[in-house]
Amino acid sequence: MLSKKIQAALAGSSAIRAMFVEGKELAAKVGEENVFDFSLGNPATPAPEAVKQAIKDLVDQTDPLILHGYMSNSGYEDVRKAVADNLNSRFGTDFTWKNIVMTVGAAGGLNIVFKTILDPGDEVIVFAPYFGEYRSYAANFDAAVVEVAPDYETFEPDLAAFEAAFTDKTKAVVINTPNNPTGVIYSDKTMRRIAQILLEKESEYKKEIYLVSDEPYRELIYDGAKENFLTKYYHNTIVGYSFSKSLSLPGERIGYIAVPNEVTDAENMLAGIEVANRTLGFVNAPSLIQKAAAACINEKTNLDFYDKNRKVLYEGLSRLGFTCIKPQGAFYLWLKSPVENEAEFVAAAKKYNLILVKGSAFGCSGYVRLAYCISNEKIVRSLDAFAKLAKEYHLGE
Amino acid sequence: MLSKKIQAALAGSSAIRAMFVEGKELAAKVGEENVFDFSLGNPATPAPEAVKQAIKDLVDQTDPLILHGYMSNSGYEDVRKAVADNLNSRFGTDFTWKNIVMTVGAAGGLNIVFKTILDPGDEVIVFAPYFGEYRSYAANFDAAVVEVAPDYETFEPDLAAFEAAFTDKTKAVVINTPNNPTGVIYSDKTMRRIAQILLEKESEYKKEIYLVSDEPYRELIYDGAKENFLTKYYHNTIVGYSFSKSLSLPGERIGYIAVPNEVTDAENMLAGIEVANRTLGFVNAPSLIQKAAAACINEKTNLDFYDKNRKVLYEGLSRLGFTCIKPQGAFYLWLKSPVENEAEFVAAAKKYNLILVKGSAFGCSGYVRLAYCISNEKIVRSLDAFAKLAKEYHLGE
């Protein structure tokens, strides 16, 4: 007899994971080399060589009672200091180690932040399309997401719709730029307007409204775009970060939360976050990997790998007559389904061993997501399959 | 503006962590070597040497895309198989990898199990004294713990009180043997009676009632006691395990859940646990450490280290006139406060630089807990401080 929430979750489980499983099943049938699996955001370029050396040095040189032992629930002070220093040097912030809490990935971080700020019945505004797990994370605390539709030209938020989405129950706004699933980077102008609206709404409703910035793709940007850090726009901004993409460590579950001093009652917020980290059962971020991430904090992932995929896929699909949003960051391509019901399109693609994820999983039907973090050779070969799919829909004719 | 739950949690935060912080503050004042900090269950004997080698071999020999990559939310199949095989060979169980889910420590595992089975308003029976975090974990899902008083001679559960504690809201019973905070191992006879009562109550209330066994101390047993595995007593038993103590890896957050096929609708339960693992934000247990734990699954911690501490402390304190429950397992000693209000006793102990944790943190006032996972040299020296404390209370006179 499972809990009602888990019964419901089982019924409507992750569309991304479901497609990942379908891809695996298909691979067992037709051979893995013949399946073009664009379902999962699993980094395809290995962790920098420095990570390997850092881990070996750590086990050789650190007392195992420290390396594998308990520390403060918020993480090792030296690791938190390394993160604070890194952010300060890159973004001109003024963090100390106390502003940083190490977390079990960004997913852990978001749950900790939600636990700390959300009461049952609260509303969390999200910008569609958005990472569907936000729904589960809000539901963990009996809060609900309120979806704001995008501008369908740019896939930036529709700011009039954003303004209209606030109620007296709004406690937080989640933002994710570079965006999963569109690859869009919100412009500086958009960010400034979002901040302005938030300030107005805080004043209107006479309470704190938090901007929660989910930043796993911060460093995955192309065409000379500049890395951004969102705390500069709005005082009540809390950042959740993950090293999953920047260091290709998704399985290790390592990330952090940054709470600037500008956040109302920041010290109390950080105390709440520390308690939430413990009571949710995370206890602390994995210890060895905390120290490895700190040692490798200036390492960079192989951006060229993704950029090459991005170009081949975007140009190839556009040439075939598909309507694509040009990705500016992350490793996703957002493609308009040639038919209104994109589930039908996803099923048609599967006939050609193309595994896509339907947009409704991201609160935005009529589109599909392609995660282009697979080998370039496969991307190139996939274009033949896409050509057949395009022909089926009479694209480019 | 923090959530109401976190505000309440901040007000009544972990007494164990609070004493740990007091210990650190005291250490800063009088020097760490002069503080006898019995507050935290932090293993004091290092991880087996094999762990170091396993980690180095893994980073040298494993494709980093696999070693640090996403796998199934329930963990690597080979790691789950290693756990299943290990349990089967030791306890005669018949697990396959599908019965095992790797988790972010036992704390993560318990939260996942609770998420999977608890609805708001449900009750979880716990045997006092018990690890106080169970309260937080149940509260995460709006369930409440119902405390069953111990037999004050043996500190096994009072089974008549247990029988009387069930209501139509009872969904689970949490058991922890070897026990934190008492060090007591529940006897085979007690376990069989608990199972019998559970069967009767399932029949009476016509629903599943789960026995959730929290087993981080399974291997920490003394005086020739035999390792026990609780699934043999009762069909609806779910085991949560942690490598924190057995491999001295508490900071790494690595453990597992075992769901035997005998559990009602086990397959569905495992599917629910997989979803809960993901939606709670754990996603998966840390990847490298999963593989390191599997490689070291037959390694043992230095039990002699703890056993020596146990004997010196138990014999020393008994000789001074303190009333102690003789520890049979784990690394805790449970001591009767010479005064009814044990908070007063804890404060008196602090004058002699002795950091103890009050029993009320474990739902059992009038007692204190000592975690004897510190150096033997300190344990020996602490007896002089305890002698002064004993004198203050006119013990042994």
Please describe what this structure looks like.
The first copy, chain A, has 14 helices and 13 strands. In chain A, the strands form three sheets. A seven-stranded mixed beta sheet of chain A has the order 2-8-7-6-5-3-4, with helices on both faces. A four-stranded antiparallel beta sheet of chain A has the order 9-10-13-12. Chain A has helices at residues 4-11, 15-30, 49-61, 64-67, 77-91, 105-117, 133-139, 159-165, 188-205, 266-279, 287-295, 303-319, 342-351, 376-392; strands at 36-37, 100-103, 123-127, 144-148, 170-175, 210-214, 237-242, 255-258, 324-325, 332-336, 354-355, 357-358, 367-371. Helix content of chain A is 42%, strand content 13%. In chain A, strand 9 (324-325) and strand 10 (332-336) form a beta hairpin. By secondary structure, the first copy, chain A, is α/β, with parallel strands linked by helices. Chains A and B meet through helix 1, helix 3, helix 4, helix 6 and helix 7 of A and helix 1, helix 3, helix 4, helix 6 and helix 7 of B.
